[in-house]
Structure formats: C-alpha cells, structure tokens
Amino acid sequence: MCCVGGKVKLPDLTVPPEPLLFLVTGHTRISKHFLKNICKYNSCFQMTSFGATDIVKNNFMSTFKVQGQIYHRAGSLLPLDSDYKFLQIYFMGTSNEQVDQRCRLSRITHRAIVSDLQDFFDQHNALVTLFRTALERMPADNFAVVIRPDKTPNGQHERRYNAPTIDEVAIVIVGEQFHPRDIVLHRRNGNVIRIPETHRSYDALQYPIIFWQGEDGYHFNIKMLKPGTQEEDTKKYIVDMYAKVESERLLYIHLNQKKLRSEEYIHLRDAVATDGNLRALGKMVILPTTFTGSPRHMHEYAQDALTYVRSYGRPDLFITFTCNPTWDEIQELLLPGQSSSDRHDIVARVFKQKLKSFMNFIVNHRTFGETRCWMYSIEWQKRGLPHAHILIWFMEKITPDKIDEIISAEIPDSNIDPELFEIVRKNMIHGPCGIINNSSPCMKDGKCTKRYPRDLNNNTITGEDGYP
Length: 468
Hints:
Elements: H1 20-25, H2 29-36, H3 38-45, E1 49-58, E2 63-74, H4 95-105, H5 111-124, H6 126-137, E3 143-147, E4 170-173, E5 183-186, E6 193-195, H7 202-206, H8 242-255, H9 266-275, H10 295-312, E7 317-322, H11 328-331, H12 344-363, E8 371-380, E9 386-394, H13 403-406, H14 418-427, E10 443-444, E11 447-448
Antiparallel strand pairs: 1-2, 2-6, 3-4, 3-5, 7-9, 8-9, 10-11
Helix pairs in contact: 4-5
C-alpha cells in the first residue's frame, strides 16, 4: 500500500557509521539499554517539540495514543533567558554544558552515550551544521533563518537533493514575505512556530536518530514512476506516517466538498430545517462514509448490524476473542531483543489470521451447529492488544438446557488434559488481586473493578447488569 505496488522508488537507508551503528545493531549490555530507551535518547536531541489535541499514555505496556491533530513546534535559535530547550541546546556554551542539559531531560540516559551521540550529530547531521552556520551569519536578533519546504528545481530528480546544504538557508529581515509552509526561525524571540507536516524537514527535526544525516522526509515533490516506462509521474504518494495520511485525507475532503455532494446529505438538510439560521451552522465539513471512524461511517455499520437483528432476532452467542502476545506465531517473528509491544504490525497480522481461523472453526466446521449469519468488531485494548467482539446467529436457537454444553467454567483435570489445564491456569483465571495483591491492574480504590472474589454458584443466573 505504501509504495503503490512498486510505483514509488525510495532510496535505500544509509547504514550509519559508529557509534550509532553499534548502538542499534549490537547485542551488548550497552546496546540493549540504548534500544530499550531509544525514545528517551531521541528526546535528548530532537529539535522540535511534539504535541497533540490529547495524548493518552499507558504505563502497563508501551502504548502511545493520540486524539485529534498532531503538531510539531519550534522556538527561536536562542532563548530569551538561560532556559535552553530542544534546538536551542545545540547552541549552549560548551560541549559539556550541552551534555549536562540533555541528561537532565531523562535520568535513565547514560552520559557516555549522550556525549558520543552529540559528537556524532555535530559531525554528520547537516541540519545541525546548517543552523550553526546560519546563526554565525546573523548580525542581530531581527534576522531569521528560512528553510523552504520544496527545494527540487523543475526538471531535476529530487533524489539528488536529499541532504540539506548551506545554500538552502536564507537570512532575511523580519517582515519580508514568507510562504505558508516555510520554517522561519528567528535568532532570539519568545514566539513558537508550528512546523507543517508536509515540510521535508518535519521528520528529521523530530527524529534525529532515524534521520541522522538530517535528510528529507515526506514532501510534495516525491513522485511515482509509471509502470513499464519508469518515467516520473506527477502524483504524490502517501508514506507510513499515519498522522500525515489522516491530515491529507481531511484536507482533501475539506477542499472537495462539492465533489462529495455534501449539500445532498440528509443530516445537513435536517440541520438547516431545524435551526433555520444558516449562519449558526458555521463552516460545516461533511466526512464521507469512506473515512474510517467518521460519524457517517459508524452510522452505516450500525445500520447494517441492526438489519441482522431485525431479520434474525437476537444473536445466540456473544464471544470475546482476545490476543495473546505470547503466541508462538508472534514470538518466532520477533527480532533479537524485541518484545511483542515493539512490533504491533506482527501482533495485528497474527491476530487477524487467528481470528479468521477461529471463525472458520465455528462457521464451516459447525462446532455449535449450523450458522445462519455472524459479524464481529475489532477493538484495541488500552494495553495495546487487539480483541474482537463476535455475534453469531444459529439456524436452531440455543435452549436453556444446552447452555452447560457450550459454556464451561471449570478447571480441567491436570491428569486427563495437562495442556488444557495449563492454558486455563495461565490465561483464564483472574488475579491474584485484593488484599493479596493491591497493585494488580484491576484494583481501584482498594477494590477489584471486576468484583472478585465472587461467590460460587451451583446454577447460572442473570445478573442485574445482564451479564450471567
């Protein structure tokens, strides 16, 4: 999907020299420490700050979720006071002072690694050299350094212009006209600017360890190659940074409302008819059903689901199918030193294959009888693992006397079936929590949120909340 079936040709990643090569590929204690805390080390050297409308962090596993729009911001090259941050740290007095300031950002980092990386970026990162050269050329604070978003001359191949050069920097007096997507950094002021997500230096400023040369990331000048002829096409392509994908899709929808015939949408007509005041509507942008997660997309799926209930009645089984990060299929594909939380791509793909196999087991093998229809919805838990909610309708309805044949809540005999016993013991038993383990994830205000321990019952009954 990301390369449009091979139409997009990207240059190979350049193998970094030492010491970065040793840190990212080695198997020593130092390398393992670096890889485990690579985000912390990247934060020590990033030149822009990261922000979003809402950021949700989960300490249970390394899951990071954002809601709303993502933005990167940068300040002036020099601070108004002695508080140096982000890009400004590169211009502190001595090398030792810079290392001290970076180590203050995270106590987990090792000073020797930070010092080696600082020397590495000073030598190899073209953006660092670019900013320092520009600062030396600035005679006063009313000057600024400008990085243009698109640098490829017409008729030239963009891959010749990957690495930044000093010639790209223009020192201009404040007040001159800038393009909307220019990065304009002043020598010293209190303003903070936002870096456009389509700027070619957007990625390198935020992730210096990945873009260690300061090379270009995504930009509008990247072109596709026509199949067969290998000639450049004028179309741009979408890369793997999902926030940029969403931003561009939303921008396209915003600029093409007429093509989407948004005025024909019934909800817009209802709003006009109800309110009567067109000015009160503001600037409304209608998201189509093809935009995943939009109100119309969710409404369409909800209507489809209700159609099943209207035609076939209530479902017979509600099954929750969860992902196990210790599955052999996941563990076998991990690289040395990796855990399942490092490879969400593997987890998602293995889970989908397991889910398809599970549905085939129920539907085609008729485990509980002949299936009339089924549906499921996949969600991601807070811990970063996928799970599916499955509804199944059978040709013959399940009667109360058959419930015990389908649902079992007993621990298997370890002598008769030791493998199943171990699976149930490891994955299907809650706790320990409560007084025994007050730090359990299920504990809140000194009580188990799952209401354990529970009383044992001889018969299955329906609780007040509808759960058996």
